[in-house]
What does this fold into?
Amino acid sequence: MSKKIMVVDDSRIAQLQLQKELPEEEYQVVACCQSGEEALNMYEEAQPDLVTMDIILPGMDGLETARTILTAHPDARILMVSSLAYDDAVEEANKIGAKGFIYKPFDQDQLLQALQKAFADA
Amino acid sequence: MNKEISEEFRETLSRSVQEITRRFAGIELTETEQPLSEDTCTIHTVLEGEDRADLLLCADTALLIRLARNIMCRDAVTAQDIEDVATEYFNVVCGRIARLIVPPPHKNSRFRIPRFYAGSYLPEGDPASRWSIGYNNTQHESLQLIYLGPPSGKRPLS
It folds into this structure.
């Protein structure tokens, strides 16, 4: 059974690139959200196995959105996917409890490895 | 007037922009002083924090169309496709080079969501704190990365 992925990114191009790299037989994108607020509203309805989360979003940023989701759902799996290459962003993501961090632009191998690692972690 | 930047810094920045462009869209860029054409677009963001600065990408529309075609995997692209792809491309470039331009421990660890403008756009700023680097591809389509820093004496770059 394929794993359900929720993509949070304000760019439809980033959403498209991510969907293009995910093998359909293993992963199914069940929701795409363009803001943190939309992601918070959508999370319970979509019940994803994993959320990919951009950091720079309109309104609430991705780190704050991840923190809010993980507070309400401690078992949520969140993978940060961002172009922001500052150490403090990575450290904050780890502190919040994100399952990983990958930098844009990513290739399929990097994405799949990060997903496998996120699902392998308890 | 353009601020002089060190050769080492220019090379590091150039390698980053070239690598990102290759990985993002399969386009090879070479550093050049070739001017832009008259048909250009601009994407702009602000590096936030105590040393606020502007970062812009001005590009020939032909290059942005090529970028959009490569990403969308089709020849027929709309104006919205071009804007969306250019904005995401610049977002990725900014994320990487912001760290080079404003290295830790400065507090500019975020930038605003990039905005797209059809045509040229250059915000007001101190010309003495400005620098730019030009590139073109094998089809001689050009783009320029422009940094417009905080007023002289208050800039993070040394």
